[in-house]
Amino acid sequence: MLRVKTDEGAGKRMKLLGKLVDDQTRCVHYNGRLDVIAIKFSCCDTYYPCYECHRETADHEAVLWPASRFGEKAVLCGVCRSELTVNEYFSCGYVCPYCRANFNPKCAAHAHLYFETDIRGGTASGA
Length: 127
Known about the structure:
Layout: E1 2-4, E2 12-14, E3 37-41, E4 46-48, H1 51-57, E5 73-77, E6 83-85, H2 86-91, E7 119-120, E8 123-124
Antiparallel strand pairs: 1-2, 3-4, 3-5, 5-6, 7-8
């Protein structure tokens, strides 16, 4: 369990699972300087650093985050522990809107593994 920031300022506890290598959500699969987000999987309401961590450690198949829920918080900044909605994440330009940490723009290539969308240049269709 990790503590994440909320809009009210008080922290809440949230599950973060996977093969982590540090406290900024990097994992054995993705551990570059910019790999500092975790994504909540709708199938288990749990954050994982990447789809491979979910595949290797969860006891169920991944379910894509539905487009109808893009207004809900489902992306975690590993630097400041703020949660972003999917829409915020898609529109932030790969920079955390709360702490200004840079996110990996190459994550867009994997958006289809997390979100019910076809991602094009950092935007979501239907968002």
